[in-house]
């Protein structure tokens, strides 16, 4: 049955939902408040430099390829990417530099040579997180979690038989500390907690499966940068008939009783059979459904971390740096205590430096580089004053200068800054929380907002703040869950 569907937001989840629903034969219209698509996965151009402003790591590319395969389109021939040989270069305060080679055997040898970790320990760990991922992905990622039909499925029965293998009783850090004798590797694998905005000292060890995606499945990068994912998918969606409307702020969801009837956009009503929200779920309820209570699970869940990002144009090249680089804090645990308990910036933060021009060759002028310099930051509670930001900038520059043995500040020729405040303003994410809620509890997966709410007919949710979570693969997975829900509902209505 062909339906008229309105999608609120054009982040990766909204675009993926639009493609899937258009391929099913529905009439799909996307409303985006910004002047271009992408949401958090966007780009910035300044002074001859181009920066990807959001997610910078591309894993499970098959999920994107699947979207290109839906319907008739030539877009898939334009999207090019390749597998990274070196996933990330890790820098430690004691001078250790560790390359996370994509080849597990090469990585294990690197760990043995640089930090004395026996290769068998590395392989044993990677095999365990691989088993964990393969066991649970079908239940936790690609299905509508917390529904009885999901637990009764074959994937649910499979997990029930091997529940102990999900390692839910320990934290990520506890399991990593038991797995490795090297504090360097413990810190490296603890870092994966930040991939969904969580604290590895509290988040369940189940999340260690995230490491499997990089170290076994592989990390990739688009030849034209991360924003090319958005560009090519939008082109594909348009070829399938999806109508994109930019500078179009959705102001309200329209209901008749508890059934969706459309949305109000820029003061005008747009009637639709269904509404799919790609907004941060807190902002959605607060701004688009103000007369209805924000669900308890949304109100009580601890918010994920946010980020502070410096976009620096640098007037020289750094051959010793890779596409992805991490400069660790000396006291990692104290950094997370500041991040989640004190809600303040740590004086010695872990710094992530992403340089897309290492791959594209076109994102910076000749002989220069585009540095995306990010730290994990607490959600906005009014603490980001000019003085705090100035001190943070100084601390980051001093850290990078010390660890690279070069005065970084004198090479910065262009600068922009993103903060939790600007993230909140641009994306309506509560407090600038990048992933909605954190996973700092073994029950977090059960508490995450579902992809549909039964009491509101025709209302669906995709994106990083709902099940299964944030990041490109999970947002695309949420779109798959929603499109399957709609198809199943329509099939039932025919009977």
Written account of the structure:
- The chain is an alpha/beta fold and 495 residues long.
- The chain has helices spanning 12-23, 62-68, 104-115, 119-140, 148-151, 154-161, 172-179, 183-190, 210-217, 227-239, 281-288, 296-300, 332-342, 357-360, 386-404, 420-427, 444-447, 472-494; strands at residues 4-8, 27-31, 43-46, 49-52, 81-83, 86-91, 97-101, 220-222, 243-245, 250-256, 259-265, 268-271, 274-277, 306-314, 324-327, 351-354, 369-377, 412-418, 459-461.
- The longest helix is centred in the last third of the chain and has 23 residues, at 472-494.
- The mean pLDDT is 94.
Q: Strands, helices and their partners?
A:
Blueprint: E1 4-8, H1 12-23, E2 27-31, E3 43-46, E4 49-52, H2 62-68, E5 81-83, E6 86-91, E7 97-101, H3 104-115, H4 119-140, H5 148-151, H6 154-161, H7 172-179, H8 183-190, H9 210-217, E8 220-222, H10 227-239, E9 243-245, E10 250-256, E11 259-265, E12 268-271, E13 274-277, H11 281-288, H12 296-300, E14 306-314, E15 324-327, H13 332-342, E16 351-354, H14 357-360, E17 369-377, H15 386-404, E18 412-418, H16 420-427, H17 444-447, E19 459-461, H18 472-494
Parallel strand pairs: 1-2, 1-13, 2-9, 6-15, 13-19
Antiparallel strand pairs: 3-4, 5-8, 6-7, 10-11, 11-12, 14-17, 14-18, 15-16, 16-17
């Amino acid at each position: 049955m062909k339906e008229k569907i309105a999608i609120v937001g054009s982040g990766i989840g909204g675009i993926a939902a639009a493609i899937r629903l258009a391929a099913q034969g529905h009439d799909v219209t996307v409303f985006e408040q910004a002047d271009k698509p992408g949401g958090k996965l966007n780009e910035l151009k300044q002074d001859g430099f181009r920066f990807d402003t959001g997610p910078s790591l591309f894993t499970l590319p098959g999920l994107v390829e699947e979207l290109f395969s839906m319907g008739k389109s030539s877009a898939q021939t334009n999207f090019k990417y390749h597998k990274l040989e070196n996933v990330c270069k890790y820098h430690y305060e004691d001078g250790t530099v560790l390359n996370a080679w994509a080849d597990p055997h090469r990585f294990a040898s690197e760990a043995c040579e640089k930090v004395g970790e026996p290769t068998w320990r590395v392989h044993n760990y990677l095999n365990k997180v691989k088993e964990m991922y393969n066991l649970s992905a079908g239940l936790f990622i690609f299905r509508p979690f917390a529904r009885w039909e999901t637990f009764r499925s074959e994937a649910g029965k499979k997990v029930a038989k091997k529940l102990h293998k999900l390692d839910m009783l320990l934290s990520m850090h506890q399991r990593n500390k038991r797995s490795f004798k090297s504090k360097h590797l413990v810190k490296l694998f603890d870092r994966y907690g930040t991939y969904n905005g969580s604290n590895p000292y509290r988040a369940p060890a189940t999340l260690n499966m995230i490491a499997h995606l990089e170290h076994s499945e592989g990390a990739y990068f688009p030849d034209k940068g991360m924003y090319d994912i958005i560009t090519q998918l939008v082109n594909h969606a348009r070829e399938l008939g999806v109508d994109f409307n930019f500078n179009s702020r959705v102001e309200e969801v329209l209901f008749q009783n508890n059934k969706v009837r459309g949305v109000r956009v820029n003061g005008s009503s747009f009637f639709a059979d269904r509404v799919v929200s790609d907004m941060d779920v807190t902002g959605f309820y607060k701004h688009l459904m103000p007369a209805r209570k924000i669900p308890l699970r949304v109100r009580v869940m601890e918010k994920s971390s946010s980020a502070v990002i410096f976009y620096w144009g640098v007037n020289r090249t750094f051959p010793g740096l890779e596409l992805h680089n991490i400069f660790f804090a000396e006291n990692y645990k104290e950094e997370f205590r500041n991040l989640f308990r004190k809600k303040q910036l740590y004086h010695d933060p872990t710094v992530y430096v992403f340089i897309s021009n290492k791959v594209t060759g076109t994102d910076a002028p000749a002989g220069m580089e585009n540095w995306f310099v990010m730290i994990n930051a607490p959600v906005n509670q009014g603490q980001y004053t000019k003085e705090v930001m100035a001190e943070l900038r100084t601390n980051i520059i001093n850290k990078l200068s010390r660890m690279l043995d070069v005065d970084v500040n004198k090479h910065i020729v262009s600068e922009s800054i993103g903060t939790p405040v600007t993230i909140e303003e641009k994306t309506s994410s509560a407090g600038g929380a990048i992933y909605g809620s954190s996973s700092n509890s073994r029950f977090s997966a059960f508490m995450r907002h579902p992809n549909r709410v039964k009491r509101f007919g025709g209302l669906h949710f995709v994106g990083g703040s709902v099940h299964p979570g944030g990041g490109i693969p999970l947002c695309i997975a949420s779109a798959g869950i929603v499109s399957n829900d709609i198809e199943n509902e329509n099939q039932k209505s025919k009977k």
